Amino acid sequence: MASDSSHCPSRALTNTPLHLIASIIPSSSVPLRNKNADYVAPTPQNTPLSNAPLTREALSRPTVGTIGEENEDGAELTGALQNLDLSGLVENRLGNLVGRSSGYIESLPPHIKRRLEGLKGLQVDHTKIEAEFQKEILELEKKYATRYAPLYERRSAIVNGQEEPTKEEVLKGEASEADEEDEDEEEKTSYADVETPADAEKGIPEFWLTALKNHVALSELIEEKDEEALKALIDVRMTYLTDASGFKLEFVFDPSKNEFFTNKSLTKTYYYQDEIGYSGDLVYDHAEGCEIDWKEGKDLTHKVETKKQRNKNTNQTRTVKRSVPTSSVFNFFNPPKPPKGDEADETTDFDEIDERLELDYQIGEDLKDRIIPRAVDYFSGKALAYEDLDDDDFEDEDDEDEDEEDDDDEEERPRSTASQMAGSQDPQECKHQ
C-alpha cells in the first residue's frame, strides 16, 4: 500500500507541458476514490496507508517566465497562469490518470511481448520461493520463542517479587550499562551485594504500567483513569499460534489488585493471511480481541451521561442516563475491522478506518517485537532513545520561547487518532484462568 513517488500529482503536473494540462481539465467532478474498493491490510512491517486523496496543497502550480511586455492597461504580464487555480481544476482528472497505461507495452511487437511473459513466469517461481522463505522465518521465530520463554518467566518472577535476581544477573546488567557509558564518567556503585530488607516491598511496583507508558503510541491510548487498572498488570506475554498463522498477546492481571474487571487475563490475537504480500511480507488478515467482564460501574470504555427531559404535556421532568463509548486503552481488546460488502456506504470514512487499522497492527507488532522482549528498557526509558521520531517532534531552538508563549493562550488540542481508537466488532469471550 505504499505510495509510489512516480504517481505523485505534484511531480506529474510540474513535468507536464501546458498544452497537455489544458487537455485534462475536467468538465465535471470525478470521484477521487472508489469507496467500495477491496481493503488490503497492512503488513507486519507496518506498510504505510493507502495513497492519500489529492489536495490542493499536494499539487504544484506550473508557472511561466515573465513575458516582459505590458498590456493596454499598463500591467506587466508576470505569468500567464499565475491567477489560474489549476490545482482545483485538474485534481479530479489526475486522480483517474494515476496507474493508467501509457500504451507503451501494447505497442511492443509480439516477440518482445513473448519475452515479457517469460519474465512473468520467472517472477511466479520467485514468488513461490519467497513465500517459502517467509514461512521458514516464521518457523525460526517460533523456535527461538521457546528459548526466550525461560527468560521471560524469570523476569516475571523478579518483577512480581516471587524471586530475587542473582548476583551474577546483577553483574551482567551493570556490565552492559558500563559498556554503553562514556569512559570519563565516574564509576557507578555496584548493587550486586546489596541485601534486601525483610520488610521491603516485593518486586518492582508498576513495572508494566511504566513500560507501556514509555511507548509512544500506547502512551496516547492510556488515559489517566486507565492507570489504576493497569497497576494490577503483572505480565504481558506473546505466543505463536499452532493451528493458524499469527500470534496471541496475553495481558495477565493480579485479581487481588484489580478492582475493575474479573478477568484474570485479557487476550488479543493477530492472524496473518495464507498468501504472501506483493512485497514478499506476511500480511495481516484481522485481529480478534476478547470480552472484558467489567465490575458494576467500573467499565473504563464507557461513561454515563445524565440528561434531563421535559414532558411537553405534563411539563414534568425526568432524568435519563445512558452509557456512551469513551477513550480508553482497553478499547485495544475490541479491535476495528473494515466494512465488508454492503456494510460500506457513502458515509464510510475509509481513510479513518485505514488509520485505525494501521495503528492497531503497529501496536501489536511493537508489543511482540519490542516491548515484550525489551520491557526493562521501556521501564527505564532507555528504549526511547531508539524510538522512530517524526520530524514534527523536533523544533528549532530559536522558536522555543515563542512556542511557549503561544502555548499559554492555546486551547486544548484534540487528541490524536491513537487516543480516539475504539472497537467496532463484537469481541470474543476472554479466557478465565
Automatic annotation (TrEMBL):
InterPro entries: NAP-like_sf, NAP_family. Residues 312-329, 416-427 have a biased composition (Polar residues). One of its GO terms (biological process) is nucleosome assembly. Residues 164-175 have a biased composition (Basic and acidic residues). It holds the Pfam family NAP. Residues 159-196, 305-348, 383-433 are annotated as: Disordered. Gene3D superfamilies: 1.20.5.1500, Nucleosome assembly protein. GO terms for cellular component: nucleus. Residues 176-187, 387-411 have a biased composition (Acidic residues). SUPFAM superfamilies: NAP-like (SSF143113). Belongs to the nucleosome assembly protein (NAP) family. This is NAP-domain-containing protein. It comes from Pseudomicrostroma glucosiphilum.
